[in-house]
Amino acid sequence: MNKPVRTRFAPSPTGYLHVGGVRTALFAWLVARQAGGQFILRLEDTDKVREVEGSGDHIMKSLEWLGLGWDEGIGKGGPHAPYIQSERLDSYREWAQKLIDKGRAYADPYSKEELEEFRKQAEAAKKPFLFRNHRPENPPVWDGTQPLRFKSNPKVYEWDDAVMGTLSAGEEAVDDFILIKSDGYPTYNFAHIIDDLNMQCTHVIRSAEFISSIPRFLDLYDALEIERPILATLPVVLGPDGRKKLSKRDGAKDILDYAREGYLPEALVNFMASLVWNDGTDQEIYSVQELVDKFSLGRVHRSGAHFDEKRLLWMNGAHMRGLDTEDIYTRSQAFWPESAAKHPDDYKKAVLGLVQERLKFFGELPELTEFFFQDLPVDMSLIDGNKQLSKFSHAELRDMLGQAKASLEQSDFSVHDLTERLNALLEATGQKPGVLFSLIRIASTQAPSSPGLADTLAILGREVALRRIDASLASLA
C-alpha cells in the first residue's frame, strides 16, 4: 500500500475510557506517527440508548493527557468533517441507496415477534439462526421506517491480519445484518466502513471482540467494490486474574483517575504498549519516542496479557526516577500536602529530590513528605510497635536519645557532619543502626519510614530536628 498512512480511533461515547480502549488508540497513534501519517479521532455515536453525556469531552481529555494528539477529528475539524457519526447521516443514506440499487440491501419487514419465532425454529432444529434463511421474497420499498439489511453473499473468506496472520471463516460466519436501524441511525457494522472509506483510512486497528464480524465486513467491502484497509486485530487485555477480558464491570479504572492519582502519562503509555508488544529485547522502560521508533504491528503478541497494576506501579516509579529536578517539581504541584504551601520552592525541591527514589506516583507525596512541613504529634506506637525498639524500656530509649541529642547539638547539620556523628554514636552506644537510627528517625519525623537519616535531618534543619527530639524525650519520660 503506497498511500499515506492514515489511522483512526473511533470510540463510542458510552462512558469513560479505560486501558482496553486507550490501548487501541495508542497502537493506531504509533502506526501513524512512525510512518509520518495522520491520526484521526472520530466519534461513533449512533447508539443513542447507551450514550453518556460528556463522554466525547472525556475521550478528548484522556487522549490529550496521554499525549496522543490527533491531526484531525472531533474538536479539531479537518477535510473530512464532520467527525461525529450522528452528523453524517446523509452519507450513510447515500451509500445505502447504492447497495439498494445493486440489489445488495433490502427493507426488513419483520416484527420483533416474528424474528423471535424464527430464532425458536432454528433452536428447535438445532441449527444456528441465520437471517438470510428468512429473506422476504418481496420486500417493501425501503422508506426509512423499517431497518435496512445487507443482502450477504455467503462464501468462505480468507484474509491477512497484520497481527493475527492469515485467518479464515466459513459461510456460516456471513449473514444479512442491519445497515440502518428504524430510528434512522446506521449500525457500527455499516457506518465505520463508510467513514473509513470517506476518510481514506489505510489501517483499521481494533480489539479481538470484533474478529467474528470481519467476514461480514469483507462481504460489504466486496459489495461496495472498495479496497480493504490493512486490518489489525489486537488481543484482549485480560483482568488481573488473567481469565476474562478487563472491563468496567470488573473495576477497570477511568484513565483520568490515573492522572488524578499522579501517574505519569508516558509511564501509562509505556505500560499499555508493553502489555502485548515488545521489540524482541529485554528492555521494559521506553520513552514515547522510543516506542514510536521501535513499534511494529508484526511484533504484537497474538495472545492476551493480563492487567497487572503492580507492574504499572513499578513502571511509573521507574519513569519518576528518570525525571530531572525541574521537570518532576513542575509536575508535582497539585499533589503536595497543604502544609507545604508556606515553604519556599528550593526547600520543596530538596524534599522532592530526597523522596524521588521512593516515589511511585505523586499521590504518595503527602504521606512521604508531611513531616518535612509540620511537626506531627508524638506517636508512641511507632516506638512501642517497632520490633527492634520494643525490646528496650522507655528509660533506656530516653538515655539513648538524650545521648544522640547531645551530639547533634554540636553539629552544623551538613550531611557529611551528620553522617560522621551518627556513625560515632553507633560506637558510643554500642547499638545497631536498626535500633539507634530508628529511634532518632521516629523522634525527628514521627513517620513510619523516611529517606536516609542524615539527609532527612539536614533538610529538617537544626532547630526543627532538636525541637522534635525534645518532644519525644518528654514523651519517653
SSE arrangement:
Blueprint: E1 6-9, H1 19-35, E2 38-41, H2 55-66, E3 72-73, H3 89-101, E4 105-107, H4 112-124, E5 148-150, E6 157-161, E7 165-169, E8 178-180, H5 188-198, E9 203-207, H6 214-224, E10 230-234, E11 237-238, H7 255-261, H8 265-276, H9 288-294, E12 305-306, H10 309-321, H11 325-331, H12 345-355, H13 365-373, H14 381-384, H15 394-408, H16 415-429, H17 433-445, H18 453-460, H19 462-476
Parallel strand pairs: 1-2, 2-3, 9-10, 11-12
Antiparallel strand pairs: 4-5, 5-8, 6-7
Helix pairs in contact: 1-9, 8-10, 11-12, 15-16, 15-17, 15-19, 16-18, 17-19
Work out the helix count.
19
| Multimerization state | single chain
* Separation of the first and last Cα atoms: 82 Å
Helix content: 40-55%
Category by helix and strand content: mainly alpha
What's the average pLDDT? 94
* Beta-strand content bin: 5-15%
- Order of strands in the sheet with the most strands? 1-2-3
Give me the count of strands.
12
Major sheet summary line: 3 strands, parallel
Structural Rg: 31 Å
Overall body shape: elongated
List low-confidence stretches: none
